[in-house]
Task: structure prediction
Amino acid sequence: MKERVAGISCFIVGVGAVLVLIAIIADEASRGRSIIDLLPLFLICAPVILYPAWTRFGKRDLSEVEKLDIQNEILKKQIEQKELKKKLED
Result:
């Protein structure tokens, strides 16, 4: 879950930075300054937007080993619950 929140927030910050850069470029163009000076800022913002999108906002696929570990933990907890219920009934 943390990965998804981080991915989404990173994406939102990147989009916000691009919008701010567009506003700055519009202002700079009206003053007659060069837009090429702001190109490095776009190159920084592009990965900030693309990486979360490419990684599906932090959603990752579990390997088979991780899936088995999760299933084992669930089974252990179910066994513990059954043992506790037996103790409570006695």
Notes: Helices lie at 2-31, 39-54, 64-89. The mean pLDDT is 83.
